[in-house]
Recover the amino acids of this structure.
């Protein structure tokens, strides 16, 4: 997979002398750096522009769970916004006033906040990821952020880092002192969905090859089938990727796998219609869920999850497989148990960290 | 500008390039003309030794038909370019009274012709109730290509703007067909939009051409049923489209209704599934007006759990095994 380097980097003066900008200058020698007081909001996306701003909010956020659906209790390390992979279903398209790739240049403050959070709650296992508001590794060839984060987590006693990506940009992970505290995770889908809905992301082959390479380097892995989509032939498509996945990577390096059927804020439908007129994904049998998002009618979700779960459990019965944002009725029907049966979803994932990674034992 | 007396011989009656037709009968204007004659001078501009009508086509036509040979007309300055004339013409149309849908189509087409992308004056767009986006304007203008058939339907005022706009990407035959259907159903704007969206989405989901869908025998049967009024026809059409758009959910709903019916519960006891079966919050509703009725309702409700008569209603898996 190839990413075009940004031609212009807009940097807020407050972070112009920071380590991140310094790395960017080194890795983007052809880019024009423009220092501004404040990067202004814009409605027009420019794929050639990278913004580096001084972030004034909280870097650590909680995964947005709701009362009705089980949440994994994952914490998000918010280091940037937006993505240029252009997946048709992506919620980031709805952030209309911040359409450009954006990084938070005050990395030092981010790490300070992170350290403080881990110290304040020393008895808790912190599962922290970076792939919520952007792809974790999309800009890594330029930012080298993984070379900061993985060693940071290697030194922690009570935290693991999950890097979620649809790229194969794992070059910076090589030869890192990660101490088995970093999980490299891929979002996967069927070949059909990859081609139609994620055309600019790495091919499935590239992702699986990268995963294998990471496993060889001692990293733990995770895979997320999110969004699962219902389309004619979905069974064959998903069976194929599962088979390829378990052929490609050693199952015992996989800490967890998750599944989430496609769900979206209602306003995304119009955006998908306009930006991706060929995409048929908004025309499934969606109903409005308790969280206000559109989601497949429950029988469809149960069918998707049940099909996948059967195959995954056959490949590795001990694997921690979970559903993203689903209620106990769906868990029971699709997986045969509820998170409560196993102490709760966050506890299930903590247990997976202990048993698979041997961390925080 | 003072009006000038202009003889009708000097007017080029064939040229209607500045016309913005509403495609509807303006009875108020007719009544006013009959009673008071022309109160406000129509506009003309000089072109090639003739005068072109810019504004007031109906008024001048009325005057001519009523035997007048000349009228006091406002002659626009010769120095005005075509664009400047249009700006005045559109401005007058928009700010005097809101344009009808057919007029909106014409104005959209003219604005696209007159201005390059991004330069269309915002005050025109806001008066047209349109966002500052060329693609939306293009959708409106596109409806003009159908010619009088579509414009007459739009001019009737019975088609909601959004419904019309939703059809702008359809092929002509299907658009004319659906607009005709909507006109016949006389339903609200939101229901019109719902019908158009459903048909479009079913067509995409099932990869069926719109024209085929609009000629679906079940749909045609509903529309040609002479025994029911437009309200019931609309409801029947909505039900059909819901079944086609949400086939699995509809099947489950029908099955659930059937299963509940088979329980033969008294009218005082109702089982209500969660909306769209989302979640596990089923409800039981008891109605009563005295303690005896309550006792009976409770007895009926209690019988549902011993033996488990509800299991296969709550769980579709059990239902399949049945």
């Amino acid at each position: 997979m190839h990413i075009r380097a940004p031609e212009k980097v807009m940097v807020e003066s407050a972070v112009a002398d920071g380590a991140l900008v310094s790395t960017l200058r080194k890795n983007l020698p052809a880019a024009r750096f423009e220092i501004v007081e404040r990067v202004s909001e814009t409605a027009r996306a420019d794929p050639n522009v990278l913004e580096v701003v001084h972030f004034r909010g909280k870097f650590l956020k909680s995964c947005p769970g709701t009362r009705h659906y089980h949440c994994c209790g994952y914490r998000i390390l918010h280091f940037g916004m937006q993505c240029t992979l252009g997946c048709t279903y992506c919620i980031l398209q709805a952030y209309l006033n911040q359409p450009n790739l954006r990084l938070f240049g005050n990395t030092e403050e981010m790490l300070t906040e992170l350290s403080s959070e881990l110290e304040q709650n020393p008895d808790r296992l912190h599962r922290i990821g970076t792939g919520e508001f952007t792809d974790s590794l999309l800009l890594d060839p330029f930012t080298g952020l993984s070379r900061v984060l993985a060693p940071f987590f290697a030194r922690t006693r009570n935290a693991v880092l999950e890097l979620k990506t649809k790229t194969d940009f794992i070059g910076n992970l090589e030869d890192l002192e990660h101490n088995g505290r970093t999980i490299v995770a891929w979002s996967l889908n069927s070949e059909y969905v990859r081609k139609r809905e994620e055309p600019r992301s790495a091919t499935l082959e590239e992702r699986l090859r990268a995963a294998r390479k990471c496993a060889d380097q001692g990293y733990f892995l995770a895979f997320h089938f999110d969004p699962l989509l219902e389309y004619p032939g979905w069974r064959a498509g998903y069976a194929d990727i599962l088979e390829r996945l378990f052929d490609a990577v050693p199952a015992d390096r996989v800490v967890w796998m998750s599944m989430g059927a496609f769900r979206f804020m209602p306003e995304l439908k119009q955006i998908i219609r306009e930006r991706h007129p060929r995409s048929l994904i908004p025309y499934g049998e969606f109903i409005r869920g308790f969280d206000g998002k559109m989601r497949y009618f429950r029988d469809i979700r149960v069918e998707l999850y049940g099909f996948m779960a059967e195959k995954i459990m056959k490949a590795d019965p001990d694997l921690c497989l979970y559903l993203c944002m689903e209620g106990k009725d769906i868990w029971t029907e699709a997986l045969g148990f509820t998170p409560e049966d196993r102490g709760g979803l966050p506890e299930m994932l903590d247990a997976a960290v202990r048993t698979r990674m041997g961390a925080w034992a | 500008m003072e009006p000038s007396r202009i003889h009708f011989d000097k007017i080029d009656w064939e040229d209607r390039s500045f016309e913005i037709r509403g495609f509807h009968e303006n009875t108020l204007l007719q009544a006013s003309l009959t009673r008071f004659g022309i109160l406000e001078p129509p506009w003309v501009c000089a072109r090639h030794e003739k005068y072109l009508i810019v504004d007031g086509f109906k008024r001048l036509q009325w005057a001519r038909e009523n035997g007048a040979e000349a009228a006091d007309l406002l002659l626009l300055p010769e120095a005005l370019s075509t664009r400047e004339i249009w700006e005045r013409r559109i401005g007058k149309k928009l700010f005097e009274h809101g344009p009808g849908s057919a007029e909106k189509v014409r104005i959209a087409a003219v604005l696209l012709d007159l201005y390059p992308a991004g330069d269309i004056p915002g005050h025109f767009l806001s008066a047209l109730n349109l966002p500052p986006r060329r693609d939306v304007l293009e959708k409106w203008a596109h409806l003009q290509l159908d010619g009088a058939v579509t414009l007459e339907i739009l001019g009737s005022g019975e088609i909601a703007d959004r419904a019309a706009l939703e059809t702008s990407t359809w092929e002509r035959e299907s658009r004319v067909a659906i607009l005709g259907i909507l006109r016949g159903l006389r339903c609200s704007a939101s229901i019109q939009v719902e019908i158009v969206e459903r048909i479009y989405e079913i067509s995409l989901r099932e990869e069926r051409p719109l024209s085929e869908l609009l000629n679906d025998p079940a749909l045609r049967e509903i529309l040609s049923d002479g025994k029911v009024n437009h309200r019931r026809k609309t409801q029947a059409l909505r039900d059909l489209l819901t079944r086609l758009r949400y086939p699995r959910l509809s099947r489950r709903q029908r099955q659930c209704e059937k299963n509940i019916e088979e329980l033969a519960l008294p009218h005082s006891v109702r089982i209500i599934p969660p909306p769209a079966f989302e979640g596990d919050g089923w409800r039981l509703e008891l109605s009563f007006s005295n303690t005896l009725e309550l006792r009976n309702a409770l007895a009926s409700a209690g019988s549902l759990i011993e033996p488990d008569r509800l299991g296969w209603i709550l769980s579709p898996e059990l239902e399949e095994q049945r």
Summary: Residues 178 and 214 of chain B are 8 Å apart (CA to CA).
